[in-house]
Amino acid sequence: MTIRFKTAALSASALCATLFCVWMFAPSHLLQLWGVSYSESVGIVARRSGALFAGLALMLFMASDVPASMARAGLCAGIALSCALLAALGMFEFAEGRVAAGIGAAVVVEIAMATVFARIWRTDRALLRRAGPRRV
Questions:
Q1: Distance between CA atoms of 104 and 117, rounded to whole angstroms?
Q2: From start to end of the chain, where are the E strands?
Q3: Does the reported pTM lie above 0.85?
């Protein structure tokens, strides 16, 4: 099954916008799901993470109509890497007993996003290689 970049970008943008709202305005909900206690310092980091998700949501939304290019390939590679690292960290923290099983839902979504954006990156890269030195 092939997922178009536009579909992936808009879906990821919606997810990032949702995460922005949760981390910015109600971080205790996700933290509770993960078995992490809320504190003032955790709240600061959560809200700062929310700001990053807002930026990602906007970038993905604005790039959703962009044709295959080096910039789009870079965006896909970066998202794939970030999601893969987040999934690995989630599994590691669970294995170390620092988070609850609720982290599993996040890990599944992160693995799915990493896979989708890595596939788009590979497809774009192949298209750009065939196009020759005139990479856009």
A1: 20
A2: none
A3: yes
